[in-house]
Amino acid sequence: MSTTSTNAALEVLFSHDQIARRVAEMGREIDRDYVGEKIVLVGVLKGAAIFLADLARSISVDNTFDFVAVSSYGKGSRTSGAVKLIKDLDNSIEGKNVIIVEDILDTGLTLNFLRGMFEQHQPKTLRIAALLDKPSRRVEKIDADYVGFTIPNQFVIGYGMDFAERYRNLQDICLMPPDAPELSAG
Ligand code: PRP
Predict the structure, then answer these.
(1) What is the C-alpha separation between 2 and 16, in angstroms, rounded?
(2) C-alpha of residue 115 to centroid of ligand 1, in Å
């Protein structure tokens, strides 16, 4: 088992180098798909902030950023499907090529909500880039156009992803140990 330098107790699922290579590939895919176009990258706070920062720098096509935030409904109440917008787009996306940038596509409730909301603004194109995809958890019928890694139902932290707001700064994507005291502390 390899461990992250930031916290020797955590098992690394994807190392910083693996992530960097995959994100660079995703950037090249996007470049190929949008030759001669402009893109608006819309990051979903907070988890996607680090991924967006790296993805944007892997893209050569002219791009700008925007961010939205949705309610972080506790995992327990998430089955209610109620997603609430906390921070809206700063700029209009009408007629623009939009890529929603997410750290993880899980049940799909968040991205399904955002996709519906964005479509009402009539973008020229609307796609989704998700660093991680957990298809086994899907509730809504939604897929990402660009996926970094497909994973089973594992609790992951690092590279923007948190447990109770911690660990977002880990360079690697790590597995949260199922017996971690934090998980039972609630
Ligand atoms: C995570 C992730 C996605 C969402 C995906 O956000 O960043 O936005 O969950 O889950 P879903 O597909 O089941 O809707 P979280 O609520 O943990 O907030 P964060 O981005 O601030 O960490």
Answers:
(1) 12
(2) 14
Residues classed as catalytic: 106
Q: Which fold has domain 16-156?
A: Rossmann fold (3.40.50)
Expressed in angstroms and rounded, the spacing between residue 110 Cα and the centre of ligand 1 is: 7
CB 129 within 8 A of CB 103: no
Question: Does an H or E element contain 92, and which?
Answer: none
Specify the ligand 1 atom closest to the Cα of 106. 12
**Per-domain residue ranges of the chain:** 16-156
For every one of its 186 residues, what pLDDT tens digit does the chain have, with 9 covering 90 and above? 665 655 668 999 999 999 999 999 999 999 999 999 999 999 999 999 999 999 999 999 999 999 999 986 655 445 566 899 999 999 999 999 999 999 999 999 999 999 999 999 999 999 999 999 999 999 999 999 999 999 999 999 999 999 999 999 999 999 988 777 665 554
- The token duo for 172 is 């690697």
Of 144, 135, 185, 148, nearest to 163 by C-alpha is 185
Nearest-atom number in ligand 1 for the CA of 162 is 22
**pTM to 2 decimal places:** 0.92
